[in-house]
Write a structure and sequence with these properties.
about 300 residues; alpha/beta; Rossmann fold; Alpha-Beta Plaits; six-stranded mixed sheet; five-stranded antiparallel sheet; 15 strands; binds adenosine-5'-triphosphate; binds magnesium ion
């Protein structure tokens, strides 16, 4: 029995002679919100298709809930909600018909399928479009329907391939809230994306894929490298803190900017920084209002590992 909901070993895919995925060892713990990040063409969709048995691996192993994919796909897919990159084929159905049909395919009794379709349409923000045909929908509306479809049958694991690609800004914010809600309810969620700021808000684990290879994986918190980092601190008396910081060995530079104390950390002594600064603040009886890294940790990891610019 493994601790992972998704575990792959040496997962590899060739298209003809082109090696698209190399020896991928994914590990997605139970309850994780796992962000699968990588540039266009890195192999995210190809990997996800193998995880959901839409594509057969060239070699390597996939285990989901300790069952073997694709051999035990029927059993596995009962517990998986999958949102593909290019969703929905049933163009002539209405949204209500489509979602009910999907529920029936999963083996739900008629009434339950109808109930879930209705609830999920409202949840995904397409309740008013229930009787519109799929072919009449905008790309963002389709994506909302596909999200609703992935949630039918209350799956324990969600596999979502760029679920926010076509959503409007408000839709994106709502989506993030929903992912966090689902995570709180104990679901494991695997999301591919290239939008760092979104992944940062939703995910506690990340896997970074570049040219078909997993170049890093783990808890966001543990991957965060504090080297050369700026920190932002606000306390009830900034000047007192600033005076203290200026004499400390772990501070390269400290200054105040728009009411925020910015510290350029000397990474060799970062341990002491994290112990001594909070101790000073508490010792002086100062109120701590803000303490955070100035750049987003994930962004820093990505810039380092991919050595490339990332759009928002
Ligand atoms: N059916 C196919 N036959 C041949 N090559 C393919 C096929 N599907 C994908 N590829 C190639 O595999 C590579 C990975 O594609 P994939 O769709 O997995 O990338 P991705 O990470 O999902 O990218 P994006 O962010 O653009 O969605 C690309 O170079 C693509 O051209
Ligand atoms: Mg893709």
């Amino acid at each position: 029995m493994t601790a992972y909901v998704i575990e792959t070993r040496e997962l590899t895919k060739f298209f003809g002679k082109r090696n698209i995925i190399y020896h991928l060892n994914l590990r997605v713990p139970k309850g994780a919100v796992y962000g699968f990040l990588g540039p266009n063409g890195a192999g995210k969709t190809t990997t996800i298709k193998m995880l959901t048995a839409a594509l057969k691996p060239t070699y390597g192993e996939i285990k989901i809930f300790d069952l073997e994919m694709p051999r035990e796909r029927v059993e596995i897919m009962k517990k998986v909600g999958y949102m593909p990159e290019q969703p929905i084929a049933y163009e002539d159905m209405t949204i209500a018909e489509f979602l009910t049909y999907m529920g029936r395919l999963l083996g739900l009794p008629k009434e339950e399928a109808v109930r879930q379709a209705r609830d999920l349409m409202a949840y995904a923000g397409v309740g008013k479009l229930a009787f519109n045909r799929i072919k009449e929908l905008s790309s963002g509306q389709r994506q909302r329907v596909a999200f609703a479809a992935a949630l039918i049958g209350e799956p324990e694991l969600l596999i979502l391939d760029e679920p926010t690609a076509n959503l409007d800004p408000l839709g994106r914010i709502e989506f993030i809230g929903k992912v966090l809600e689902l995570a709180k309810a104990g679901k494991t969620i695997f999301i591919s994306s290239h939008i760092v700021s979104e992944v940062e808000k939703m995910c506690n684990y990340v896997g970074l894929i570049k040219e078909g290879q997993l170049i890093d994986q783990g808890r966001v918190r543990e991957l965060v490298n504090v080297e050369g980092t700026d920190y932002d601190i606000v306390v009830s008396d900034n000047s007192k803190l600033l005076e203290f910081l200026k004499d400390q060995i772990y501070v390269r530079e400290a200054w105040e900017e728009e009411g925020v104390v910015r510290v350029k950390l000397d990474e060799r002594f970062s341990e002491r920084f994290f112990v001594e600064v909070p101790a000073f603040i508490a010792g002086e009886g100062l109120a701590l209002k803000l303490f955070k890294s100035h750049t987003s940790p994930l962004e820093r990891i990505l810039m380092k590992r991919f050595n490339m610019g990332w759009e928002e």
